[in-house]
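ingest -> validate -> predict -> emit
validate: passed (alphabet ok, no gaps, 145 aa)
predict: started
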Amino acid sequence: MEKFIGEHISYIMWADEKILEDEWSAAEKLFKKYNLNWEDGKVVIQNKINDLMECENEEDESEDSPVEYDETFEIPSAVLPEGVDGFELLKDLSQVALADGELSLSEVDIMHRLGKSFELSELFVSAAIVEAVINSDKKINACFN
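emit:
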């Protein structure tokens, strides 16, 4: 389960191209909530972020332009681990996205792609994000530029 949670956290942390200490803290909190090994989780997260950045760099070299989110970027379908509720997990992943006090369009996009990979409707994804924003202990700024 460390691999499953860690890889999905990685997408969130990578989405806004800022990997901040607040996000690492939120990720650790999420691992503890699910009674998972944080040391193993950090390795999974860092490896997946490195993979995502490596793919980004390969595309940069081949196209001479920065990678942007488009219809072709897909997160592989994921079967939720037994006992894990997809809506609750999306709320938890939203907390990682919100950890820096900002919610970017790329983070919202990744959340919807994660929801799709969990076979959840866009409505549930949006509701999970909204609930996470409402319950956040930080004032959240939307960065949709």
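Strands lie at 102-104, 141-143.
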